[in-house]
Amino acid sequence: MKQLEQIKRIKALAETGLVYVEDEYNRERYEELKQIALELMASVADKPLAVLDDFYMPVTDYPTPKVDVRGLVLNEKKSDFNGQGKY
Fold first, then answer.
1. Which H helix or E strand runs over 45?
2. Which residues lie closer than 8 Å to 22 by C-beta, 6 or more apart?
3. Which residue, among 59, 64, 69, has the nearest Cα to 19 in the 3D structure?
């Protein structure tokens, strides 16, 4: 659905602009652009605007994927790392 992807891009541009905006004039423009994107999304999804507006989390920093990687390695041959039974 190309139209929906374009609407999402417009919304993302508006949210990025709202993160970095420095003056009130441009803030109003980005807020209006975001509102237009949400209205278009509501019409495509055939859902009320209030449902979509509450669906998305507020953006407080640059909208990028956040990655967290953790790992644990267990070795059956060695029971501890320092020889004292502590890891």
1. helix 24-45
2. none
3. 59
**What pTM was estimated for this model as a whole?**
0.63
**Residues 72, 31: contact at Cβ < 8 Å?**
no
Cα distance between residue 81 and residue 87, in whole Å: 5
Nearest to 52 by CA among 68, 64, 66, 34: 34
Going from the C-alpha of 44 to that of each of 4, 11, 35, the distances in angstroms are 7, 14, 14
Quote the DSSP letter at residue 38: H
Residue 64, C-beta contacts closer than 8 angstroms, at least 6 positions apart: none
Kindly tell me if the per-residue pLDDT of 73 is higher than 60. yes
Q: How confident is the model at residue 64 (pLDDT cuts 50, 70, 90)?
A: low
**How far apart are alpha carbons 84 and 74 in whole angstroms?**
16
